[in-house]
């Protein structure tokens, strides 16, 4: 079989096997279209089209002819995504052509899930991809676009999964630089104490305790069209600073740059698709470490915008680095500004690991995002920028408090904090993502995962009027 990337569709050709995706509701009618031999075989094996159930159909000599995958009930399909992808690794490593009764959106979801099911991460030198089942691009899908999305998601997952010892601010810069070089984007970087001279004091304050220098990554691509700026939190490891996290909370902090990884993946989708936009990506890349130079609880910092901030918890550092980046972004007056960050545990408490909240004042933007989220099955949920909670982030000694006491509405108050740094007529949305799959699921192994990028990729053409 011709070598094909696990994240690409295979060419059709001799030896391709049939692959049938059959739901419980349509099993009887589908069986009526099959030969007596197939009906007898499935009856003898007890195939009932349960979600993820697989039946392999042999020819009279015992060689594989086709496979049937159960698509479950409507309830099963509403409760889980990527059923086809969930079966990929259980199929014999052959080339398959899909037969189905899916609408276009469901077909695109299942085909993408198949590609993403090829993903795995293992630390160390890269190894050849495992031989696994391949799929011919189904009729009716935009195969090129699905492959672009899959490749970008793989990029995001790899960044999140890489241990912090191997991916600090410098390595995140290298990954972004590689992306910029690949697509002909320009990139500038502001390092270390130069952050102070360039009026990015909050990024410097958060990252100065580490011997891995903090920096701001600034990528630009495209000369014409609407201005789209993506800001991603790039905290490559978060100890909590002097407000040190307990061990159980620190264990996953290699993923605290998940916002940066996700906006880089989204940027890759946009550039690979050739959108007519002026794209800018801003990533404050830091490590929140502990040393004698670390910021302290009770410190008052002055931001790029001039707002003062009382640091009441050094573990609420993400909103600090994002504040300077958002203020810088608004100086360029983008038409649309997107912020993505693994920002609060409160978001997980409210919505769990699978549904990131987003915040925006723009009702049309929110409606477009929710519609795209449902269409491509990339879950999102709008949460309110509740004005009454503004007082919770105003400490009196300074303009803002980075960690309001009491612990209530933590995701909302973090979003309100960030909103203070956005000015002008820019459409703004902030996403409080988790960036991690805590348990294996179809097409999503345990580990880093992109969230919200596919919904944004589907929504932004309408938002930007492309």
Automatic annotation (TrEMBL):
Listed CDD domains: Peptidase_M17
GO molecular function: aminopeptidase activity
Record domain Cytosol aminopeptidase: where: 313-320
Entries under PROSITE patterns matching the protein: CYTOSOL_AP
Keywords: Aminopeptidase, Hydrolase, Manganese, Protease
Superkingdom classification of source: Bacteria
InterPro entries with a match to the protein in the record: Leucine_aapep/pepB, Macro_dom-like, Peptidase_M17_C, Peptidase_M17_N_1
Record-stated family: Belongs to the peptidase M17 family.
PANTHER family: LEUCINE AMINOPEPTIDASE-RELATED, PEPTIDASE B
Record protein name field: Leucyl aminopeptidase family protein
